[in-house]
Amino acid sequence: MNVRKKSADPKGVLTGVHYLDGDYAIAEGALAAGCRFFAGYPITPSTETAERFAERIPMVGGVFIQMEDEIASVAALIGASWAGLKAMTVTSGPGFSLMMENIGLACMMEVPIVIADVQRGGPSTGLPTLTGQGDMQQVKWGSHGDYEIIALSPDSPQECFDLTIKAFNLSEMFRVPVFIMTDECVGHMHEKVVIPPAEEIEIVERKWYEGPKDKYLPYKPDVDLVPFMVKAGDGYRFHTTGLTHDERGYPVINAECQDWCVRHLCDKIRLNADKIIEYKEDETDNAEIVVVSYGITSRVAWKAIQDARKAGIKVGSLRLITIWPFPDKRIEELAGKIKAFVVPEINLGQIKREVERAAKGKVPVYPVSHCGGWVHNPDNILKVIKEAAK
Amino acid sequence: MNEIRFSGFGGQGIIRQGLILGKALSLYDNKFATMTQSFGPEARGSACSSQVVVAEERVLYPYVTKPEVLVAMSQEAYDKYEPELREGGILIIDSDLVRLKPSKRKIKIYSIPSTRFAEEIGNRIYANLVMLGFFTAITKIVTPEAIKKALPGLVPSRYIDINIKAFDKGYNYGLEVLEKEAQEKAEEEKTEKTQKLKGKGTKK
After folding, report:
1. pLDDT tier, B195 (very low <50, low <70, confident <90, very high otherwise)
2. Which DSSP state fits A254?
């Protein structure tokens, strides 16, 4: 793939061992990744990220803007990204809903941006100060039309740091919005966070077009399906729009162009899914039951898995780091070998539905659901593992 | 594993206590410590708490459910959180701010006038560090060196010395309390023994 890799700009890297909460760690991960533009509208429980940016980003020569709302925040990111900056915002449920319109625009314009959603209990204003994982389907389907995005789910402040860097890298690599789907518990949880030296952090830059000024085509797919970018203001004349467009970026309102344009948006992620998807497995080889979990729930589930193993049950763990694109292939493989899946999550079965879809009815999928406000009691997960093992 | 809850009212530095302890343990005492805080629509003056879960390996369940140690710096916090304290647990209170209710529970109670001590040092704002010093001496969960190393970044640099002074005040008071306790215990044992001996003597 023709992408540029380099090490991080030391200016943004707070190398050392810190005691940070997840919200702060997201801000530090972004700065380490080279993010130099933040536009947002603070909302609980994501406010600490915005605060940290407001304090830190001027120190590294970046810009912090408090916007009038979340719609404008994403609009500002799109502009900043076209101007060549790495840009991000952070929000929670109600703000995330408002962002959907311009998330669609970012997908259509193929603009690399990063959005962190520190989930709280929903719907609507729901539980402002308490945890939830109820936006897992919204992140995939929240805007209208067919499109693909990438979403990651950290389980700790350390992973908030690590995965925010990964989010920026993927976003640059695929010219697509990437989402960090964390939650109030991880966002407000303080733990040790190790920030490595800048030279140990690998940063990916988007592919810059360097050809003749009159030959630039902003939507002509390269071999990896991802088109080149230029910086607005560098003298390249180009057009970009939310309307269905051709390689030049000009609107073409017919079914053929729609098919070409929209398939491209989906294919560049779907056909590269193997390069994007990351998960962590433990003892899935001889497992009868596999627990599929993500984010904070995967930590609590790990306790239940240990307890189940002590009780003699063969339990494996599939911890999703990438939620979207969903690891269909791996789920289907496992479905052919095991007795059942167990999916604990802080919603009423959003990812359980995906596991069921990918398992294609080969094995039952047991949900362990609750609506938010608290993380699972590990005993409740253990109970379902035991039931599934019967 | 240790579950610890600091509690009081908003503005007393209760969250800061949890942060300092969590940082000290995980950065300088080689433990895993996850700190969370009661995060509700509370404002200054209402009940407030921070929680630290300490373990030798990664903390999986991040919340405190049955703490082994409860530090209460206000009556409201004591009333609210005392019932969840584990049997055999340790209750630490500010003796001027908390009035204990009669209780038959098997818990160990230690008290310190932390706010008064802080005022003697110069400002009641240091009461949280006095209390943290006392906590450190009583529970031995964390080393005093680690706490002192954790202060930069969590306390404005020009106030570090006075915070250390406050910490030492509480720590030394804690050592005195423990020493007194040990002496009393030794004396009790001694009288018990002599009484036993006397008892034996009369039987003969």
Report:
1. confident
2. S
Print the domain residue range for B132. 2-203
B152 bridge partner residues:
B155
Q: Tokens for B163?
A: 């915070």
Q: Is the pLDDT of residue B198 over 80?
A: no
Give the pairing type, strands B108-112 and B90-94. Answer: parallel
> Do A191 and B41 lie within an 8 Å CB cutoff?
no
CATH number for position B89: 3.40.920.10
Give the distance from residue A116's alpha carbon to the nearest chain B alpha carbon, in angstroms.
Answer: 20
Residue B114 to residues B12, B46, B80, B89, B134, Cα–Cα distance (Å): 11, 19, 20, 21, 9
- Topology alike, domains A4-205 and A279-389: yes
The label of the residue with tokens 């979207």 reads: A324
A222 touches chain B (CB under 8 A): no
Q: Looking at domain A279-389, which of 3.40.50.920, 3.40.50.150, 3.40.50.12160, 3.20.20.80 is its CATH number?
A: 3.40.50.920
Q: Is the dihedral of CA A95, A98, A99, A100 positive or negative?
A: positive
Given an 8 Å threshold on Cβ–Cβ distance, is B62 in contact with A375? yes
Looking at the structure of chain B, the number of domains it has is: 1
In tens, the pLDDT along B9-55 reads 988 999 999 999 999 999 999 999 999 987 666 566 678 899 999 99
Q: Which amino acid is at B140?
A: K
* Strand A315-320 versus strand A279-282 pairing type: antiparallel
Q: Which residue in B has a C-alpha nearest to residue A301's C-alpha?
A: B60
- What is the token pair recorded at A62? 């970046």
Of B35, B61, B63, the CB nearest to A190: B35
Suggest the residue from A192, A194, A280, A380 to mutate for an interface test with chain B (most B CBs closer than 10 A): A192
- Number of neighbouring beta carbons within 10 Å of residue B26: 26
What's the token pair of residue A331?
């789920």
Three-class SS state of A247:
coil
Contact check, Cβ <8 Å, B63/A375: yes
**What are the residue boundaries of the structural domains of chain A, listed by start?**
4-205, 279-389
Instruction: Report which of A318, A232, A236, A218 is spatially closest to residue A277, judged by C-alpha positions.
Output: A318
- CA pair distance A110, B185, nearest whole angstrom: 74
Q: What are the CA-CA distances from residue B131 to residues A73, A316, B4, B97, B168 (Å)?
A: 44, 45, 14, 13, 10
Q: Is B62 on the interface with A (CB under 8 A)?
A: yes
Q: Alpha helix locations (H) across B82-121?
A: 114-121
Contacts of B34 in chain A (CB under 8 A): 189-191
- Judge residue B36's burial from the number of C-beta atoms within 10 Å of its C-beta, 0-12 exposed, 13-18 middle, 19 or more buried: buried
Q: What is the pLDDT of residue B43?
A: 60
Q: What is the pLDDT of residue B46?
A: 77
Cα end-to-end span (Å), chain A:
48
CATH topology classification for A4-205: Rossmann fold (3.40.50)
